[in-house]
Every structure is written in structure tokens, then in C-alpha cells.
């Protein structure tokens, strides 16, 4: 069992002694309709771990277990969310309705900056807690234990870049929102297939994706965070143990010089703005030839960190930057559509220009 979950369970036991909030736990029950007939108020949902979880037939209040789930669920059901796993980035104020910015902070179940706040979670009384992303080894055990102790259903739904349409199909089933899910699923499928076709048609560029304040971390080939990078380019960052963290693997300048990338993509907050004046970096073809770019940031890093559904936008941006002739679509229109579907926001041309100022993605 994950050590974070063990600590959470200990906290649950303490809270049980002082709170009487567990009436929100879901139990099989029946209600009468206006005409006196009996109707079931719960049903069984099978999650991606194969767990059969009893959930309300009509889910109105949703909690999320982490930032990946926060982004995925926000697209389909923002008004059902009772809280957020991580505080929104400051830039979210420019795009989101104020009511979403005021949701309580629940914390997150796995990794990240802090643990799930059980007291806040229980007070919010969600109908279900949704975990989205790559399954952990102890996932089924962890969720079963938390569900038993809190009385709240916990479900896990897998999310991979190539199958985000399946992720939304499952969410649509869970939340009884098939129409909303279908639109998001169709977009994810179309965008992925479009970019995959571009990747299969071009000679892939030798590239590094660089992170960190000093630019000495890389997103390594084969890591969960490198799915887009590995698809669209020859990812030079081959290491013995690819990091599972969004900060990537730490390397040294000598290694970067040896890799000798023809293009470099810098994560937000790295050294994009000063790298051209750095004597070491000036010797690298990517910097010397001006083939280096900064990932747009707003309201999330478009390429990941966390590696959630925004990578569907990021992969379209990256294809446009690296292979503009093959990616013959209007990037502003592409971004505008994404923001409408996933952020419920009408993106202006001025906002788009600011987002892509360092990426050369503007048409």
C-alpha cells in the first residue's frame, strides 16, 4: 500500500471519532417516485482497475484525487466539482469563471505538493472521488481501503495520450453525461490521429525537452511524460532510469553538448530567455540556428506537468512548431477550439499571441 494512503487512513480513523459526516457514504437503497414506484438510487460501475464500485445513479458532486483528474474532469463536468486538487495557476484568472477559482483545495492522493485533505473532502460530501491517470501498483488496494474507511466511492480511470477518447467515454458513463463525453472523446481521437499521421510522414528532428531553472533536466525517452515528445521527434534524452516526475532526469552540460540537439524545447520557467547568451549553449546547433522554443503556459504547461489532457493541445502545437509544412492547420483556431471545449473559455487573438510569443506557433 502506498505510504501516503497509509497516513491518510490513519487520519480517517481519527476523524471518525470526531466527525459525523459519514452519512454521505453510498449504500444500496431505493426511493419512491411521485407515482409510488420504486427506483434504485445506486448502480455498479467497473473502473479501470476492474473494481466494481457502487456509486449513486445520479452523481451531482465530484471530488478529484489529483491534478490530472482535475484537468480531465473540469472539461466534462466543472459544475459538479466540489474542490480542486491543486490551486489553479495564476494565469487561470484570465480564462476561467471566478466561481471555479474559488473551489476549496482538497489536496491530492499521490505525489505532488501535499496530501489529500480528508477533513475538507468529507465536509464537501462528494458522491464520488475520481482518480485519473496512470495506475499505480497498489491502486486497487489503496482505493478499496479509502472507500471502506470514508464511505465514499473511489474510482480510477486510466488516461493515456493515445486513448483519451476511452477515458472520456468511461467518465461519460460514470457521470451519465454521454453527449458531453462524446464531444470531448471525438476531439481527442481526431487530434491524436491527425498528429500521429504527421509524425509518421516526416523525418523526425533530433530534439531535447529541457526543464529546470538551470536547464539541466531532461524529459527522458520512454517516460510517461515523454509520450508526445517520443511520438513527434527523435528524443535524444536516453537514460538508464527515466524519471516518473515532471521535472525529468538531471543531467550535466557535458551530456547535453554530447547529445548535440538540432532543436530544443524549454519548459516554462527554464532558461529559454537567457540561453542565447550562454557560452555553452551557443555551441549547440539548436541554439545557434534559432531552433529553440518555449512551451506555452496558460492555464497549464501545454506539454504536461501534470501530463494530463492538455497534452492533446500540446501535441498539436509541437507538430506545428517542428513541422509547419506538414501541420497545415491554423494553430489559433486549433487553440481556440480546445479552450472552448476543455476550459469553457472564448480565447481571444490577443491571448493566443501572448501564449505563443516564444514558440513561433502563431500563423
What does this structure look like?
- By secondary structure, the chain is an alpha/beta fold.
- It has two domains: 3-159, 3-Layer(aba) Sandwich (Rossmann fold), CATH 3.40.50.1980; 192-355, Nitrogenase molybdenum iron protein domain (Rossmann fold, 3-Layer(aba) Sandwich), CATH 3.40.50.
- It is built from 14 helices and 13 strands.
- The chain has helices spanning 3-18, 67-76, 98-101, 118-124, 139-150, 164-175, 178-201, 227-232, 253-259, 279-282, 285-288, 311-322, 331-343, 349-355, and strands at 30-32, 38-40, 42-46, 52-56, 62-64, 128-133, 154-158, 206-211, 217-218, 234-235, 249-250, 263-266, 292-294.
- A hairpin with a 5-residue loop joins strand 8 (206-211) and strand 9.
- The longest helix is centred in the middle third of the chain and has 24 residues, at 178-201.
- It starts with a helix and ends in an 8-residue tail after the last helix.
- Mean pLDDT is 89; it is low at 13-33.
List keywords for this structure.
single chain; 14 helices; Rossmann fold; six-stranded mixed sheet; 38% helix; alpha/beta; 2 domains; 363 residues; globular
Overall average residue pLDDT: 89
Query: What is the general shape?
Result: globular
Strand-and-helix sequence, N→C? HEEEEEHHHEHEHHEEHEEHEHHEHHH
Helix-strand category: alpha/beta
Beta fraction of the residues? 5-15%
CATH superfamily of the largest domain: Nitrogenase molybdenum iron protein domain
Just give the CATH class of the largest domain.
Alpha Beta
Largest sheet: 6 strands, mixed
- The separation of the N and C termini measures 50 Å
